[in-house]
Amino acid sequence: MKNLFLKANLAIVCSAFFSIIAFAQNEQFLVKDAKATAPPMSNTKDNPEVTITNKSDWSEASLKAVEELKGKYGAADETTDSRMIWFNKGPFKEIIVYAEAIQHDFPMPHKDVMESVLNYKVPPEKFDDIAMFDGSLSIDRTRGTMSAMCDKEANNFLALNVAHDIIKNVRTPMQARAFFAKTVMAAKDGDMSPYMKKIGFDKMSNTMDSDVKHKMGATQVKMRKENGIIKRVKDEKKGE
Predict the structure, then answer these.
(1) 8 Å CB contact between 159 and 180
(2) How many Cβ atoms are within 10 Å of 166's Cβ, its own excluded?
(3) How far from the centroid of its chain's Cα atoms is residue 187's Cα?
(4) CB 148, CB 134: distance < 8 Å
(5) CA–CA separation, 201 vs 187, rounded Å?
């Protein structure tokens, strides 16, 4: 009787054990099956192009610039229909690729699509010299930035380094234009200058310039008083 009782308990335990194994295997199969059939999740950070709603609106030069930056810095940090932005990559505050390409013929015809923005405090007296050197360089005195816009990052490195030379009185604007053109031509033949590989000067901080509040002169104060009197007279006539 005792043997029968033990055999019965052993059968129950074995049955329960195999049931648990079968359940676990079935659950594992279901999980694998769910992973296999579930649609892949799109990650716009890893695939920035999927966020471009209409790729046909982007120029060929723009798409090439996107691929260059994606290969070097990874996915863009911000994307809209008209631009993609990388923040704080390499020496730059921002790198922006625009969907629209701008024709630029210096030093040879190409499309400006990539803007590289640096924190840089440009002396106001040098603004004209920078503009004379390259029209694709932009200065924002209040924000404290200087940016270059071209088709490749190497050309933006070159433009910003040469602009720095102008600011430091190493080259005149005309000398800078000649050096820039010569350096770009040499790079096309495989001779890339250090000016095209990195920013060659120290990173700047505290570059913003909030300017100062304009002080009203005596003439302006007098005009304000006269305008106040005229307004008061008009108001008095309306009340009559």
Answers:
(1) yes
(2) 21
(3) 25
(4) yes
(5) 21
Is residue 136 a contact partner of residue 150, using CB atoms and an 8 Å limit? yes
Q: Give the CB-side neighbour count of residue 116, counting CA atoms within 13 A.
A: 22
Q: In this predicted model, what pLDDT tens digit does every residue of 64-74 receive, in sequence order?
A: 999 999 999 99
pTM of the predicted model as reported, rounded to 2 decimal places:
0.71
CA distance 154 to 187: 10
Each residue's pLDDT tens digit, 96-145:
999 999 999 999 999 999 999 999 999 999 999 999 999 999 999 999 99
Neighbours of 150 (CB within 10 A): 25
175: nearest Cα among 164, 187, 166, 188: 166
Token pair in block for residue 88: 């704080």
Integer angstrom CA distances of residue 199 from 83, 114, 118: 24, 16, 10
> Do residues 177 and 134 lie in contact, with contact meaning Cβ atoms separated by under 8 Å?
yes
Omega prior to 107 cis, within 30 of 0: yes
3-state secondary structure labels for all residues of the chain = CHHHHHHHHHHHHHHHHHHHHHHHHHHHHHHHHHHHHCCCCCCCCCCHHHHCCCHHHCCHHHHHHHHHHHHHHCCCCEECCCEEEEEEECCEEEEEEEEEEEEECCCCCEEEEEEEEEECCCCHHHHHHHHHHCCCEEEECCCCEEEEEECCHHHHHHHHHHHHHHHCCCCCHHHHHHHHHHHHHHHHCCCCCHHHCCCCCCCCCCCCCCCCCCCCCHHHHHHHHHHHHHHHHHHHHHHC
Alpha-carbon gap, residue 157 to 160, rounded angstroms: 5
